[in-house]
Write a structure and sequence with these properties.
The chain has 376 residues and is an alpha/beta fold. It contains 14 helices and 13 strands. The two termini are 22 Å apart.
């Protein structure tokens, strides 16, 4: 069976974990955490990057920094992972779901303005599959209505939009380093902060509401509780695992892109015939080969194709169930406008195996089986 995902492993991870253990500094903000933060800042150009225990927690931190309060409204797509909404629901805010574009599965930027009310506090674009939302339009709206923009760039590490790294265009950006992502620490994430003036407050929130970070930099002679916060620091052993991959980030990027391009080439004839749809990469967007998906005609066809691939040794999966149709989505949020594409497109989408060092023969086999399925 060809697995859908295998977590990336370069080969130096265990060496670095051992080094972290032997340093006797395995809690948060050790040497490897600092290296990862510095790498993110250098590669993305963000003013401040802070490694976190998850992308979920990075988004929670962004919600705190944006001062999201009970009764506020936050605009986002319904086609996303639950964490996108959870971070704001925990603050008492209402997620306002907007329909997606069928080409990119991203929020339809043309529908956002109609969802803005006097209670709207933020827009949360989700860069699906590492392909950017139309951030120019979104940032224009944010400026017009004085809204905070929090980018859910969980899947977007090393993707860009007109030369700007995803996660650095809005006020805050949130990365994921979960085992399913291009670069992994098992569980983990990062918060990217555009305004340097917000960096100290972010450190305090991340350090349980204390000014511990300033203490370790020698800026104060003792640290104390100064604000609200929580424990959002990952272990330095996790950061050591991630550092091994960030050192080889371009190697991993190229490796995944080779597999993405092979899928795209081998399945293009079916798309040309109108049998399936393939991912669309709009002008100005550079993606990171986070995933490769196809779209079947409908839910029934997708279900049969998943079963056919499984019978023949290829694991494929569908993705998100739209949040507005989930029990919690009904309870905590609301959908603005017509659900023209969110549900329909989500029922068509099928993700194919994609991971670092996925055998090229596995890609060829998957594509051959898909062609056989459609050509009888």
């Amino acid at each position: 069976m060809v697995d859908f995902n295998i977590a990336p492993f370069i080969g130096t991870e265990l060496t670095y974990i051992k080094e972290a253990v032997e340093s006797k500094k395995i809690c948060g903000d050790g040497q490897f955490t600092k290296k990862c933060n510095a790498w993110i800042e250098k590669r993305t150009g963000t003013a401040k990057a802070l490694l976190t225990t998850s992308c979920t927690h990075a988004t929670e931190m962004a919600a705190l920094l944006a001062e999201i309060k009970e009764g506020d409204e936050v605009i986002m797509p319904s086609y996303t992972f639950v964490s996108t909404a959870d971070a704001f629901v925990l603050r008492g805010a209402v997620p306002v779901f907007v329909d997606i574009r069928p080409d990119t599965m991203n929020i339809d930027e043309e529908l956002i303005e109609a969802a803005i009310t006097q209670k709207t506090k933020a827009i949360v674009p989700v860069h699906y599959a590492g392909v950017s939302c139309e951030m120019n339009k979104i940032m224009e709206l944010a400026k017009k209505y004085n809204l905070t923009v929090i980018e859910d760039a969980a899947q977007g590490v090393l993707s860009s939009y007109y030369g700007k790294a995803l996660g650095t265009i809005g006020d805050y950006g949130c990365f994921s380093f979960h085992e399913t992502k291009n670069y992994s620490m098992g569980e983990g994430g990062a918060l990217l902060i555009a305004d340097p003036a917000m960096a100290e407050e972010a450190e305090i929130i991340r350090e349980k509401g204390t000014n511990r970070a300033k203490f370790f930099r020698g800026q104060i002679d003792k640290y104390t509780w100064v604000n609200y916060g929580s424990s959002y620091l990952p272990s330095d052993m996790n950061a050591a695992y991630l550092w091994a991959q960030l050192e080889k980030a371009d190697q991993i990027y190229d490796n995944r892109m080779e597999r993405w391009n092979l899928y795209n080439t081998l399945l293009r004839p079916l798309a040309t015939q109108g049998v399936i749809d393939l991912p669309v990469i709009p002008q100005g967007c550079v993606h990171n080969a986070h995933m490769f998906y196809i779209k079947a005609k409908d839910l029934d066809e997708r279900t049969r194709l998943i079963a056919y691939l499984k019978e023949n040794g290829i694991q494929s999966v569908f993705h998100y169930i739209p949040l507005h149709s989930a029990p919690a989505g009904v309870k905590f949020g609301r959908f603005c406008g017509e659900d023209k594409f969110t549900t329909k497109e989500s029922e068509r989408l099928l993700r194919l195996p994609m991971y670092y060092n996925l055998p090229l023969q596995a890609v060829e086999k998957a594509c051959a089986l898909i062609n056989q399925f459609y050509n009888g």
